[in-house]
């Protein structure tokens, strides 16, 4: 079956195509492009980072970029004539520390800040209410042991991975903090995290913004994500005639049309098509 014939209702992880040999490559869904340049010329790739390119770690700072991943992404980007972007809840400045020297196009803070393929940056203006709300959160979070606050400048996250018993308390606290910040910020739940992020954008709008310009335009979006925040880009890719791949188990509530079991399988596939 070619990529254009993929049945979007088929949500099962499928068997390995004959081209794959690695034992990790046992669940590459049918319909994804292979590594030939003429096939890749039709596609623009968008990758979420945490839980998609990278395995989930105990804390935000503890993530590990495996050997070879940057090299493979840079090679793949070249084969795509630059039509590869990262779309993440992280800040762009943190992404650049994870992938030093690569300077990929990036949408950070769930789409609120963006560096396009020409290197132009769009950022968010902070309000005094938001700054006060961040200070209040940092003070109040100290009352709970093992709760981590991640200040991302125009967004702030409270992590309860090491104290999951406080999930409800943290969600209640973040509602109060969101009310203090005002309507320009909104709540975003994720994996063991609740965040306050700019309300002006989301990952779907970020993908659409990339797709409006070269080298992304005139291609089909192929998006990879693992979490609630990625649903907006799954829908954007589907609506634009592209494909959406969720890393993890098939889910009735996801708009993703394809599934891959783990970041390791995704990385292995990237390595293969980047050659
Ligand atoms: O959109 P993403 O690239 O997936 O980023 C989403 C959030 O990821 C990070 O938190 C998550 O990953 C951490 C490291 O594996 C993990 O410890 C945490 O529990 C997860 O929620 C990041 O810290 C957030 O800023 C991102 O928004
Ligand atoms: Mg993710």
Automatic annotation (TrEMBL):
Its EC number is 3.1.3.12. InterPro entries: HAD-like_sf, HAD-SF_hydro_IIB, HAD_sf, OTSB-like, Trehalose_PPase. The gene is otsB. Removes the phosphate from trehalose 6-phosphate to produce free trehalose. It comes from Phyllobacterium salinisoli. This is Trehalose 6-phosphate phosphatase. It catalyses: alpha,alpha-trehalose 6-phosphate + H2O = alpha,alpha-trehalose + phosphate. Keywords: Hydrolase, Magnesium, Metal-binding. Gene3D superfamilies: HAD superfamily/HAD-like (3.40.50.1000), Trehalose-6-phosphate phosphatase related protein, domain 2 (3.30.70.1020). It comes from the Bacteria. Residues 1-10 have a biased composition (Basic and acidic residues). Belongs to the trehalose phosphatase family. Pathway: Glycan biosynthesis; trehalose biosynthesis.
